[in-house]
Design brief:
Length: 458
């Protein structure tokens, strides 16, 4: 059967390829689920089976954004613990999160994914690590929501086995035993992981953090992931309190601890990595360990400014993450392009920290690297998956910015005219095409109120 084609032309294009190729006016041709051609000027004459031709005048095409760190369930607890650091925020919210169940997680995943997709995310990721007893199939609820939304998804099956009675922060009934966590994680790989080209669903192994997970679980999780050929994810070096905790409990800093448990390597990425010294960054660069940079969440919790420019200089793969919406209430990754640039310029390099094109690369190709999918997504190149976004830049918000990439990164949040995942529209004219936004909002409100009632009673 002949390929069906979508042609987008007369638009600015930022390919984010190895050469950062850009076209002031160019075209993209999509054939079924892959990009067939990208180039300057109008599309080649005479492609067959063109089912849609789009005039992109006044628009910019980029690769779809890739989110590398999130906690969907937190959609139901936005706006709480507004003036806390990380540990106080966790202590405040863990008793609430410990009451989540399958309907709540599905509603929260729908809300989180809806906001991501509306803002140009074509590949989402979630790190779910709270599994209260009797709560139902929480990972399955997220996977179902991602399938319904039509976005590519990496589900990081998290875990915690260090509850309050063992010196951890979460309530004991919200953690698993080490053995149960490892068994459930491998079952998730068996049931859901698809390693094929164009996969819509992959699984990662993801114990939560050094202060909520035993050393045994960290070590055995790394062994499991490498035996099954999947990636590893956790939180790392987020706060000064975490660094102090690691020194007190393990006699070493976070990076040395991760290395001692097998958690440095090209198949690993860590969220935040705010408090990294020169030796830590060199270790990440030497081993190819990736970072999910979450500038808004880092600022919301007062964690600090991650040394992203130094990481990039050292060859560390860096992507962007929204983080959970209880510490980044907007839940939108496209605003993280701007925030990554602005926050980095508050650091020692000031105006020479990041530029607009580096910020766009973090949100696209960098994210693809971190998730291990740079051969499929993250740049606009022939043969790659047709995950792309057409941003509208001809409105009042961007009307006087001549540079389209600067308009996207530095300007107001640009409306998404069209977002394709594998050639399939997920957003058109700023609205989801695969889900009812009003219904998602209504159900999320209902489940948030239900959680608040249950947590108050509990």
């Amino acid at each position: 059967m002949a390929a069906q084609r979508i042609v987008i032309e007369n638009c600015a294009i930022a390919t984010v390829d190895a050469q950062d190729t850009e076209y002031a006016s160019g075209h993209v041709v999509v054939a079924d689920n892959v990009i067939e051609s990208v180039g300057p000027g109008p599309a080649p004459a005479g492609p067959e089976n063109v089912v849609r031709r789009i005039d992109g005048t006044g628009h910019l095409v980029t690769p779809g954004l890739v989110n590398t760190h999130h906690h969907f369930y937190q959609w139901l607890t936005r706006g709480l613990a507004q003036d806390c650091n990380l540990f106080n925020w966790l202590v405040t919210l863990y008793p609430v999160w410990a009451r989540i169940d399958e309907p709540m997680v599905h509603a929260a995943a729908q809300g989180s994914l809806g906001m991501l997709a509306r803002g140009g995310v074509t590949t989402a990721m979630d790190h779910h690590y709270v599994f209260p007893r009797g709560a139902g199939d929480l990972l399955g609820a997220e996977i179902r929501a991602a399938r319904e939304m039509g976005v590519r998804f990496t589900a990081a099956r998290g875990s915690m086995d260090r509850g309050e009675s063992d010196g951890g922060l979460p309530p004991d009934f919200a953690v698993e035993t080490t053995e149960a966590a490892l068994i459930a994680t491998e079952e998730a790989i068996d049931t859901h992981h698809d390693a094929s080209f164009g996969s819509m669903l992959q699984i990662a192994v993801a114990p939560c953090s050094p202060f909520s997970v035993s050393t045994e679980l960290m070590r055995e999780a790394a062994v499991l992931a490498r035996r099954r050929g999947v990636r590893l994810h956790t939180h790392g070096s987020e706060t000064v309190e975490e660094e102090k905790f690691c020194h007190e409990l393990f006699g070493m800093g976070p990076t040395d601890y991760f290395e001692s448990t097998g958690w440095l390597g090209e198949d690993v990425w860590m969220a935040h990595c705010v408090h990294m010294n020169d030796s830590d960054i060199a270790a990440f660069g030497r081993t190819g360990t990736g970072v999910a940079h979450c500038p808004s969440s880092n600022a919301r919790l007062g964690a600090g400014i991650a040394r992203v420019p130094d990481m990039l200089d050292a060859g560390v793969p860096v992507g962007l993450g929204v983080d959970g919406t209880a510490s980044n209430e907007s839940g939108e990754l496209h605003t993280e392009l701007r925030n990554a640039l602005l926050v980095s310029r508050l650091g020692p390099r000031r105006e020479h920290a990041l530029n607009a094109r580096q910020a766009l690369r973090l949100g696209t190709y960098g994210g693809a690297q971190v998730l291990g999918r740079a051969g499929e997504i993250g740049s606009l190149e022939a043969g790659k998956l047709a995950d792309l976004v057409l941003w509208r830049l001809d409105g009042i918000g961007h009307s006087s910015i001549a540079d389209p990439v600067a308009a996207l990164v530095l300007g107001a949040a640009a409306p998404v005219a069209l977002s394709l995942v594998g050639g399939r529209p997920v957003v058109e004219d700023g609205r989801l095409t695969t889900a009812d936004e009003d219904a998602i909002a209504r159900v999320a409100r209902e489940q948030a109120r239900r959680l608040a009632r249950i947590a108050e009673v509990g």
